[in-house]
Task: inverse folding
């Protein structure tokens, strides 16, 4: 007998829940190893039976950067504050890629693992959380490319990058997880989410200064524009890495607060829908 | 004795209304109205706490998968659950293992519940056996250290040793299942919930699984065991409950419960019906319509008792006369070994009389004498042909049925017997010298 079975067994009461569900994040903590294993599985499986393997983590953002470079850098000539366009775009594509992958994988995580949900008990939050976190590895791989490009263009980041980058990544992840919690729970019943996702991702890309600089937005719209947390993340990355633009301002705090609100409401919504997942999926 | 599981008045309602309205065809106007209303309904359902409790159409668009079930189970007991498909067995197990919530009622469960609801859940075909063991263990709630310490034992149990670093997509279905069961069986929960894992796998492996389960029971842990295999239920449990249409019909010592279940005719319908569009045009003028397995009294059953005679009835229609026709059955085990083949005109007298059949509807009926089959599941194939002329129709797996061997020779020893047949043979014992 193992450790686990030696202690006095605890009694679990199963009954129909009603009202606002408790978050029971302690349960999630007990299953932290499962989060780790889900991430590990996701990574193991992601590039199986591809000739290029993990290179895809690099090829995707690099190709996007080349296309953007041609369209916005060479043809449209968007202003970049004197920063070479390739690194201007790539420094934004990194956090954007992290966010977009997290949002998409997270929103599909429940339907993708429907057989687990309908057969076995575990805190369902494990699924979106591990899908979102798995995106960090791709991020780390393409970060190496960014470092190489910075050497090439001879750009030295400021020391603030050390604390600023993790914080902006955290904001990107919080935003993605918050939205993914809502969408994954809705997706269990309404697969419409699968059709909304590509559109949502594309739309969000347009309202985020990835291909262009936030400065092209006219002043009257700046406030509304900066409420998009991803605008804050992308600007923050450029600020910390390339010394472009000004640092975090009040708008960032507002958008961070919005992200937190989405995350917390997403957690509650997810938890209260969770009880019917196994029946509806 | 402490109570391990206490189930109080649980009911579970499934809303089936949505599916019914969604897939109705040809009602364009309603469909359009429905489409326009859909976003509003969607918005409303998002804020509603429990959409289950408010079916869209207030009519009978829901089913009670369980209705007012109550029972207590003491620690260390093994309880069998029998009932036909749709009786609510799986729903009950799902509630006990916290996969889904009851609509009403409460359950208290003392200790960790290990579920074998479906072995291999979370297995990923691209991962190797080793990787899947860790993955599956984590899904079932094991700690990493726990998996590490039992890893070798699991590999031994699964008998896939040398393929442990091969992706499981290259495994045979038997290897896959053995590996999956090995992980689940080494989980050490206080309460083990087992749902029909023994329907697959070969006899040797089934023996190991049953052995593992009785080990678990002997260690004083509580087991809930669902199976269609009555002899496994009889062997492993002392007590059983019978469910029918979501209601608990009886709780009794296993032998009594199984007898009640088998004789009350709720067992799975042993019937196969061919619709006109299922049969290829090449079969004409032969058209199969129905195949049934019947017990001694002529009732259509899914499970026959090996100690009683039973029958197979094959109904078909000839749209034109056929000469030299023979209609027959193949019987094989689920592993694909043939047990025997027999045709309705094997007897020359019968062939003379029925070799040429005019157009019309027919039934070919055959009695299967007692004491032929061993326990397990058998597949019935059908064939209609004229020898060396034409094969009109053949379906190798038309229907399957179970054989329950309770009372058969040798069942006083609770062990599986190898071989597809289990004849009642007459032995003589003589003493030759002192």
Result:
């Amino acid at each position: 007998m193992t450790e686990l079975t030696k202690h006095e067994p605890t009694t679990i009461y199963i009954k129909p829940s009603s009202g606002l569900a408790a978050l029971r994040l302690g349960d999630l903590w007990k299953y932290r190893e499962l989060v780790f294993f889900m991430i590990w599985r996701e990574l193991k499986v992601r590039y199986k039976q591809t000739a290029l393997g993990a290179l895809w983590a690099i090829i995707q953002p690099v190709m996007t950067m080349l296309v953007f470079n041609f369209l916005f850098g060479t043809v449209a000539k968007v202003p970049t504050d004197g920063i070479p366009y390739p690194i201007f775009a790539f420094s934004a594509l990194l956090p954007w890629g992290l966010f977009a992958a997290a949002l998409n994988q997270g929103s599909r995580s429940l339907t993708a693992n429907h057989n687990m949900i309908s057969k076995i008990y575990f805190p369902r939050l494990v699924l979106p959380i591990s899908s979102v976190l798995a995106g960090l590895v791709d991020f780390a791989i393409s970060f190496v490319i960014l470092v190489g490009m910075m050497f090439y263009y001879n750009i030295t980041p400021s020391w603030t990058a050390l604390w600023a980058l993790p914080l902006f990544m955290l904001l990107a992840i919080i935003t993605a997880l918050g939205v993914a919690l809502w969408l994954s729970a809705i997706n269990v019943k309404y697969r419409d989410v699968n059709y909304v996702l590509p559109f949502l991702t594309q739309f969000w890309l347009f309202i985020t200064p990835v291909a262009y600089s936030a400065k092209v937005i006219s002043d009257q719209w700046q406030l509304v524009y900066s409420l998009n947390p991803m605008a804050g993340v992308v600007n923050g990355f450029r600020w910390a890495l390339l010394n472009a633009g000004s640092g975090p301002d009040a708008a960032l705090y507002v958008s961070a607060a919005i992200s937190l609100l989405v995350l917390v409401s997403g957690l509650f919504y997810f938890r209260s829908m969770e009880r019917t997942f196994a029946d509806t999926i | 004795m402490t109570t391990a599981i206490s189930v109080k008045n649980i009911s579970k309602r499934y809303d089936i209304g949505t599916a019914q309205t969604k897939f109705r065809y040809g009602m364009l106007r309603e469909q359009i109205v429905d489409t326009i209303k859909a976003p509003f309904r969607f918005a409303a359902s998002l804020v509603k706490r429990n959409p289950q409790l408010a079916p869209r159409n207030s009519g009978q668009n829901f089913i009670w998968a369980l209705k007012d079930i109550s029972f207590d189970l003491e620690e260390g007991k093994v309880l069998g659950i029998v009932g036909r498909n749709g009786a609510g067995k799986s729903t009950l197990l799902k509630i006990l293992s916290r996969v889904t919530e009851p609509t009403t009622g409460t359950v208290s469960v003392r200790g960790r519940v290990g579920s074998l609801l479906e072995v291999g859940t979370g297995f990923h075909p691209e991962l190797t056996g080793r990787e899947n063991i860790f993955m599956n263990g984590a899904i079932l709630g094991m700690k990493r250290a726990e998996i590490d310490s039992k890893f070798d034992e699991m590999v031994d149990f699964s008998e896939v040793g040398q393929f442990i670093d091969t992706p499981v997509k290259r495994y045979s279905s038997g290897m896959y299942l053995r590996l999956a069961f090995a992980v689940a069986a080494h989980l050490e929960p206080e309460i083990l919930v087992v749902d029909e894992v023994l329907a697959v796998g070969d006899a040797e492996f089934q023996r190991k699984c049953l052995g593992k389960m009785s080990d678990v029971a002997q260690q004083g842990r509580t087991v809930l065991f669902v199976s269609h295999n009555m002899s496994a239920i009889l062997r492993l449990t002392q007590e059983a409950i019978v469910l029918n249409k979501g209601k608990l019909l009886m709780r009794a010592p296993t032998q009594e419960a199984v007898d009640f279940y088998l004789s009350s005719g709720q067992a799975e319908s042993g019937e196969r019906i061919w619709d006109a569009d299922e049969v290829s045009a090449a079969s004409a003028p032969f058209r199969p319509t129905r195949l049934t397995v019947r017990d001694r009294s002529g009732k259509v059953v899914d499970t026959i008792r090996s100690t009683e005679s039973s029958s197979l009835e094959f109904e078909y229609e000839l749209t034109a006369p056929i000469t030299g026709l023979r209609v027959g059955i193949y019987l094989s085990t689920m592993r694909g070994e043939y047990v025997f083949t027999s045709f309705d005109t094997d007897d020359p007298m019968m062939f003379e009389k029925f070799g040429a059949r005019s157009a019309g509807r027919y039934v070919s009926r055959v009695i299967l004498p007692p004491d032929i089959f061993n326990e397990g599941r058998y597949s019935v194939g059908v064939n209609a042909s004229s020898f060396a002329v034409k094969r009109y129709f053949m379906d190798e797996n038309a229907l399957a049925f179970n054989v329950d061997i309770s009372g058969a020779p040798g069942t006083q020893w609770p062990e599986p017997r190898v071989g597809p047949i289990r004849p009642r043979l007459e032995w003589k014992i003589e003493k030759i010298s002192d």
